[in-house]
Amino acid sequence: MSEKFLNVFKTQKPIIAMIHLGALPGSPLFDHKSGIDGIIENARNDLKALQAAGVDAIMFGNENDRPYEFEVNIASTATAAYIIGKLRNEITVPFGVNMLWDPMSTIALGSATGAQFVREIFTGSYASDMGIWNPNAGKAMRYRDSLGSSNMLMLCNISAEFAHSLDQRKLSDRARSAVFSSIPDAILVSGQITGEAASISDLESVKSVLPNTPVLANTGVKHETLNEVLSISDGCIVGSSLKFQGDTWQAVDPARALDFMTIVRTIRGES
Predict the structure, then answer these.
(1) SS in 3 state form for the chain?
(2) What pTM did the predictor assign?
């Protein structure tokens, strides 16, 4: 486990919980009636519930900005920065950001808000719901450093949701290659869509070739799978499982979040 990773998350096998912002201005699903104030209030409620449950970190994301884009609307990124700024003094744990599916907007938002980490697809080539997908990791990393944010961790998702990799190498080989290029501070392994679990075999294959790099389960971790997932991975990012009825598009359920973290603490030997 890298010192840089531990310095941010302060624990082995951290749990990073999602705050899914409501659809932002510029998105077809933006709610003009409740407006930005409504997004802030909902995000505040999720933040309170997650921090009360004892999650190790949170991440703000724009999952509701469907259909997704490779170049996020400038208004959406600016509004996300405003929302995080309004909540900044209430955040008591490390936080990160992710603007789907735009590495440059993600890094800009992270730098502007003082985020400790970002998540994105930085490497690879994919056929996706949004078209051909070719992120530029070198450009993204140089942009981060040019903004004076070189200490901001880059969590690199190597198995893109809503897409199929055009790279025929094994997932473990793609993971090794990304780390060799000095891109990620952690490798993320995902299922096919938001809320769908990464396969245990994928987690095992990636972790087996990256014993010294944090490898996290990025999607679909559930209360009943926590023990198996954390026996392999170095933590997880979780959203849907902490929502009412386990529904991605609902608010965080304080009871489900607390139950989830109670299981985590038992696994980590903290209770």
Answers:
(1) CCHHHHHHHCCCCCEEEEEECCCCCCCCCCCCCCHHHHHHHHHHHHHHHHHHHCCCEEEEECCCCCCCCCCCCHHHHHHHHHHHHHHHHHCCCCEEEECCCCHHHHHHHHHHHCCCEEEECCCCCEEECCEEECCCHHHHHHHHHHCCCCCCEEEEECCCCCEEECCCCCHHHHHHHHHHCCCCCEEEECCCCCCCCCCHHHHHHHHHHCCCCCEEECCCCCHHHHHHHHHHCCCEEECHHHEHHHCCCCCECHHHHHHHHHHHHHHCCCC
(2) 0.97
Sheet holding 163-165, edge to edge: 131-133, 126-128, 163-165
Tens of each residue's pLDDT in the chain, 271 residues: 689 999 999 999 999 999 999 999 999 999 999 999 999 999 999 999 999 999 999 999 999 999 999 999 999 999 999 999 999 999 999 999 999 999 999 999 999 999 999 999 999 999 999 999 999 999 999 999 999 999 999 999 999 999 999 999 999 999 999 999 877 999 999 998 888 899 999 999 999 999 999 999 999 999 999 999 999 999 999 999 999 999 999 999 999 999 999 999 999 999 7
* 19 neighbors 43 (Cβ within 8 angstroms): yes
